[in-house]
Amino acid sequence: MKTAVQQARANSRSGEKTFQSFVAILLTVGGLLMVLPFAWMILSSFKTEGEVTQIPPTIWPQHFTLDNFKILFDSMAFGTYLTNTLVIVLASFFGLFLNAMAGYGFAKFKFKGRGFLFYLVLATMMIPGQVTMIPVYLILNQMGLTNTMMGIVLPGLVGAFAIFLFRQFMSDIPEELLEATRLDGAGEFRTFLQIVLPISTPILAVQAILTFIGGWNSFLWPLIIANDEKLYTLSVGLSLLKGQNESQFALQMAGSTFMVLPIMIIFIVFQKYIIENYTISGIK
Fold first, then answer.
1. Which of 37, 179, 257, 277 could form an SS bridge with 45, CB 3.0 to 4.6 Å?
2. What is the CATH number of the domain that holds 109?
């Protein structure tokens, strides 16, 4: 009888291992199929124009060259676009700090109208950004901020979604810890910097990734608010590149690689914080 039971368990374990192996192979193949276009794009950015368009196509460059990237920065003003994009990203990180402060205020401070204000913030999430672009443009035009970098970065400094996430995370910080810090003589701002922010590292990392991606991919609003090409971002510059150089595929691959590669690197470096945040959320 024991032999039959052991045999059944062995068959069950064997079946589980077979299924796991099948799933692993399936996921590996799917991952390779997903990565292949990105790998081909990155490698094609180092090819000559003739090699990119040759049939059959090659994966690894036969003649490795950086000319495509040199053209982007020497002839296509990608250096200016990069500077503008980095300014927007840095301003977005300052906005991330403001969002964290707002979330902390809603989570730990009791004041009249707190609930109403928080629900009002959440209500703005139901309004598409395209609906508010015209009113925001008119307000900035009255303030004389159109066609300026300030006009580009100002509307995106704070966001309801980020405030909501920070508020939900910081609500679980023990009040006793904050009270002990205050009893030691720390002010509210110091408590926020030295206690609340270090505890909120997982949600800060997740929001930092989302903030970087949003700032790096800024396209529609800079295109609307800026009339001067010197204020364009990388996304707008890439769109101009595709429109002006439709037949230069190697150059387009270089521009696309320059846009995508930093986001991939940032995600790979900080993905452990995303997993940690999901784990903490699941425990809660």
1. 257
2. 1.10.3720.10
Residue pLDDT, tens place only, 209-233: 888 888 898 888 888 888 888 889 8
Neighbours of 233 (CB within 10 A): 28
Tell me: cis bond preceding 56? Omega within 30 of 0 counts.
yes
Helix/strand/coil for 181:
helix
Tokens 């999430």 correspond to 125
Say if residues 103 and 115 touch (Cβ distance below 8 Å). Answer: no
C-alpha distance from residue 250 to each of 43, 50, 159, 262 (Å): 10, 9, 37, 19
Alpha-carbon distance of 174 to 189, in angstroms, equals: 17
Residues 108 and 227 in one domain: yes
Within-domain flag for 257: no
Cα separation, 107 vs 188, whole angstroms:
13
CA 266 to chain centre: 8
Q: What is the distance of C-alpha 29 from the center of its chain?
A: 26
Please state the length of the chain. Answer: 284
Helix and strand totals (H; E) in the chain = 15, 0
Taking the C-alpha atoms of residue 166 and residue 23, their distance in angstroms, rounded to an integer, is: 36
